[in-house]
Amino acid sequence: MPFNNLCNRQQHEPGRKHFAVLIDPDNLDEASCLNLLSLSETHQVDFFFVGGSLITTDNQAAIIRLIKENSAIPVILFPSNSLHIDKQADGILLLSLISGRNADFLIGQHVLSAPILKASELQVYPTGYMLVDTGRQTTASYMSGTTPIPYDKPAIAACTAMAGELLGLRYIYLDGGSGALHPVSPDMIRAVRQSVEVPIIVGGGIDTAAKAKAALEAGADVLVVGNHIEKNPGFLAEVSHTIASYNLALDIHR
């Protein structure tokens, strides 16, 4: 399904949940990528997010090309800066790091990206990106030079998300970062869900089906899993089953 359907109330069924697999181009070769694509098609992944906080190889273009040649699942860029724009993709999360105070990630990179994006056919998804402290410093917080929202301060997250929505951002992304010790808390997700109407994306630290279910029940619209699937590809099936079961229960109760 097109990612922008999440914001279209006429096309998106309220309460329905979705699954995005985050692909770090530095961490996959062709064989492992093809295996991941096969699993993702089998288990009905909705989106691929491609990118990372620090990309050290020139592998991204080849990975996107491989995905486009072997899968119909939409590819959405998850860029850390304007250098990571690739017109092969279907869309881009235009991330504004609203949890931090670094102007480069609030607007600076967007100014550099704007003419490229305007001249492309990429679907642009304006997204309020919020880093959450999940037990250790992540690459995202280090590279951005920002302080994550404290884990036990859901009110700060709720007000930050509210500000992003009022500024016109169409998605809120709560991220614990790659290798998080624990996921964004259900209390924080719930507080944000009660404060905004836009779709909520949640990632980082989701490494069990129970954690995935807790995030869904708290109000996440899209679950993002990447790091743990790289280590344990079979986990993809567990998350997919958890989301499918949630959606089935939603259908039964209607």
Automatic annotation (TrEMBL):
What Gene Ontology terms for biological process does this UniProt record contain? Answer: glycerophospholipid biosynthetic process
**Example of a GO MF term:** magnesium ion binding
Q: Which residues bind Mg(2+)?
A: D24, S53
Alphabetical UniProt keywords: Lipid biosynthesis, Lipid metabolism, Magnesium, Metal-binding, Phospholipid biosynthesis, Phospholipid metabolism, Transferase
Keyword RNA-binding attributed? no
Catalytic activity from the UniProt record: sn-glycerol 1-phosphate + (2E,6E,10E)-geranylgeranyl diphosphate = sn-3-O-(geranylgeranyl)glycerol 1-phosphate + diphosphate
Q: What is its EC number?
A: 2.5.1.41
Q: Which InterPro entries match?
A: GGGP/HepGP_synthase_I, GGGP/HepGP_synthase_sf, GGGP_HepGP_synthase, GGGP_synth
Cited Gene3D superfamilies: FMN-linked oxidoreductases
Annotated sn-glycerol 1-phosphate binding lies at: Y173, L174, D175, G176, G177, S178, G179, G204, G205, G226, N227
One GO cellular component assignment for this chain's record is: cytoplasm
Entry keyword annotation includes Lipid metabolism: yes
User: Which coenzymes or cofactors are required?
Assistant: Mg(2+)
- Its biological purpose: Prenyltransferase that catalyzes the transfer of the geranylgeranyl moiety of geranylgeranyl diphosphate (GGPP) to the C3 hydroxyl of sn-glycerol-1-phosphate (G1P).
- Family the UniProt entry places it in: Belongs to the GGGP/HepGP synthase family. Group II subfamily.
The protein depicted here goes by the name Geranylgeranylglyceryl phosphate synthase
Upper classification of the organism = Bacteria, Pseudomonadati, Bacteroidota, Cytophagia, Cytophagales
